[in-house]
Amino acid sequence: MTTRAIAIAVLLFLPLPIVIVVLSSFTSAGYLSFPIKGVSLRWYAEFLGSADWLKVLGTSALLALIGALVSTAASFAAAWAVVRHEMRFGTTYETILLTPLIFPHAAIGVIMIVTLSGLGWLGTFTGLILVHCILTIPYAYRPVVAALRKADPALEEAAASLGARPWRTFWLVSLPAVRPGLVTSLLFSFIISFDEVTVTMFLVGPFVMTLPVQVFSEVLESASPIIAAVSAALVLFTSLMVFVLDKVIGIQFFVERD
């Protein structure tokens, strides 16, 4: 088998589970099955008509949005200090920022139970925001620092030499130069936060629940086809987000340039 044939086979295999889940969401049976038994929109209607499901969806979306904004802003500030101001011990600082990638998420969950309990934030939305920011900062930092290192500081020096004030130079020169990194950071942080389940399972409470944890609980308890409908809706949402991103900003910003 040629390399080309192997590559095609892999590319066809990767989306296969998604296709099966999407098709399973249209089953008329009361349980997950494939091939499906009859075609029905019953499970989509139950998902969209359920106040509980919509509530956890809204919670996850708001949590991911706030977490992405905070993580991106914090990552930009950190990257600016490391790259533009050549902060001492910058390598050590970067290593500390990336430590959430090193530790197992189960261990982080246990650590955060103790930490949030001491702060009185266990089982609260505030506590989840703090944890999700910690988890997403590594994914937010790398694109921003890479874009900042690629940006030519001579442009900022030229703007300053022409009489531009520091804030104007930052707004009109520095920020647009790192826009690809900021957009990538926001997108990755949002997706990572929205999909996070391992650590969040330790920290949700009776009044705060996220969509991934709710789906995981439903899989353990009933494996209802509504889970497939929720998953299919999330796939559609992600596809639409990428489409809008392409139309508004342009996917070409994610491509490396010489």
Describe the overall structure.
Helix 8 (153-161) runs antiparallel to helix 9 (166-177). With 258 residues, this protein is mainly α. The radius of gyration is 22 Å and the shape is globular. The chain contains 13 helices and no strands. It has helices at 3-13, 16-24, 42-48, 51-83, 90-97, 105-119, 125-150, 153-161, 166-177, 179-195, 198-203, 211-221, 226-248. It has a domain at 54-212: MetI-like fold, CATH 1.10.3720.10. Helices cover 72% and strands 0% of the residues. One of its GO terms (biological process) is transmembrane transport. One of its GO terms (cellular component) is plasma membrane. The chain crosses the membrane at residues 53-83, 95-114, 120-141, 182-205, 225-245. It is found in: Cell inner membrane; Cell membrane. It is a multi-pass membrane protein.
